[in-house]
Automatic annotation (TrEMBL), chains A, B:
<dbReference type="InterPro" id="IPR009057">
    <property type="entry name" value="Homeodomain-like_sf"/>
</dbReference>
<keyword id="KW-0678">Repressor</keyword>
<keyword id="KW-0238">DNA-binding</keyword>
<keyword id="KW-0805">Transcription regulation</keyword>
<dbReference type="InterPro" id="IPR041490">
    <property type="entry name" value="KstR2_TetR_C"/>
</dbReference>
<dbReference type="InterPro" id="IPR001647">
    <property type="entry name" value="HTH_TetR"/>
</dbReference>
<dbReference type="InterPro" id="IPR036271">
    <property type="entry name" value="Tet_transcr_reg_TetR-rel_C_sf"/>
</dbReference>
<dbReference type="InterPro" id="IPR050109">
    <property type="entry name" value="HTH-type_TetR-like_transc_reg"/>
</dbReference>
<dbReference type="Pfam" id="PF00440">
    <property type="entry name" value="TetR_N"/>
</dbReference>
<dbReference type="Pfam" id="PF17932">
    <property type="entry name" value="TetR_C_24"/>
</dbReference>
<keyword id="KW-0804">Transcription</keyword>
<protein>
    <submittedName>
        <fullName>TetR/AcrR family transcriptional regulator</fullName>
    </submittedName>
</protein>
<feature type="DNA-binding region" description="H-T-H motif">
    <location>
        <begin position="36"/>
        <end position="55"/>
    </location>
</feature>
<feature type="domain" description="HTH tetR-type">
    <location>
        <begin position="13"/>
        <end position="73"/>
    </location>
</feature>
Length: 212, 212
DNA sequence: GTCTATATGTGGATAGAC
DNA sequence: GTCTATCCACATATAGAC
């Protein structure tokens, strides 16, 4: 959801939450297709029955993980994007920094969200297509948060003359890619800071108006 | 392969080539796990038998597609990276531009290669692990081509003081991401030029030494 | 070399005991 | 609400005809 409080999300019982955490880990480990419901159940020391009590199908579990991860991302970035008291450059820097941080600290959920984005172009089953369309819509809305800030910076002369919508692609691509190489087992707080800083500098630099 | 001529690759018969092209399309459409051998066969107007005559298992087909895509990438970038007659900044710009181009023109193969990179962290089956390790090794070697150029630019004062190895992550992440959103059906030559230029400017800008 | 069976294993989903 | 038992579809891989 985007327009209402994440905590008020219809499907958010306490039983679900445990399943979602387990599912995020399992999907991250093996990918959507290769993950079995048994894997998810085993991850939380239970059996299939428990999962199927809360969800009708594997795809539903998957989508709930994805929406959950995206909610978290949007909830974190939106306030920064909307903070008019900060200069655009600072605002974008912080958005990028925050996004990078979540890619590392909430690796499982974000990695699964990335999988979902991929799937939309490989249209898995027509059945799930409708639900995946929702995911794509959320992603588009998220991209727009970045595009708007980039546009503002461009108009203000801080950023280059770019097609803001196109410019979000390398920026968010670079960021989302983090979930593919970052190993949450190995990184500590300092490493994460270092990575997030480098990404923020990199992306701001990529958009900033050339000196010459 | 990296150290020898791609054309001399052991498994490169004419029968194989047709299978690889079909497999690349099929894997791109549905992902590794969801693609069936029947899908691949149907893609080239044949049946399972033909595929299994050349390959012992689905994983082998997949890996051959991946290696093939990576070979193509390395073969294109290496000469640019080695051309000492060009200033570092130009060299890197062209490497990025070329990489971006292949992501679009050879979308299927590159998209499959991206899938493989993902899989290494999600260690599918221990059986395939050994082969995937090779893929990871090739990717590391490829990253090093970029890291070396970045280091050279850093020492020369053109680029910022970055950890070159870390700096390849946002750069190649942004680039590889192209295969996930670019739709080869819709883009024409001009679009591809525009995208590749924007990516090259973006990445060079992200590494260039700040004006102030 | 390419095809049509077919053996075999696995995993999503359901039924029903507790 | 959580479990075990089971049905059933489907996909890998093989055997063997042509």
């Amino acid at each position: 959801m985007i327009d209402d409080d994440p905590l008020a999300r219809p499907h958010a019982g306490p039983g679900q939450r445990e399943i979602l955490e387990a599912a995020a880990i399992a999907f991250t480990r093996s990918g959507y297709a290769a993950t079995t419901i048994d894997d998810i159940a085993r991850e939380m020391g239970a059996t299939k029955g428990r999962v199927y009590h809360y969800y009708r199908a594997k795809a539903d579990v998957f989508l709930d993980v994805v929406i959950s991860g995206m909610d978290e991302m949007i909830a974190g970035i939106q306030p920064i994007a909307a903070d008019e008291s900060l200069p655009v450059e600072t605002r974008l820097w912080r958005m990028v920094h925050h996004h990078a941080g979540l890619m590392m600290t909430r690796n499982s959920f974000q990695r699964v969200a990335v999988q979902a984005v991929e799937m939309h172009r490989l249209r898995e089953q027509p059945a799930q297509q409708k639900a995946l369309d929702k995911v794509v819509a959320m992603r588009d809305q998220y991209e727009q948060l970045f595009a708007d800030v980039i546009d503002e910076g461009r108009r203000g002369g801080v950023f280059r003359e770019v097609d803001s919508r196109l410019a979000t692609k390398p920026a968010l691509g670079a960021l989302n890619w983090i979930s593919l190489w970052y190993d949450p087992q190995r990184g500590d707080y300092n490493t994460r800071q270092r990575v997030a800083n480098e990404y923020a500098d990199f992306i701001i630099g990529g958009l900033r108006r050339s000196p010459a």
